[in-house]
Amino acid sequence: MIENQKIKPAMVIGPLGEPLTVASLPSPDTTRWVVRRKAEVVAAVNGGLLSIDEVCARYNLTLEEFASWQRAVDRSGMQGLRVTRIQHYRDLYERQLKY
Question: Is residue 2 one of the residues assigned to a domain?
Answer without folding.
Answer: no
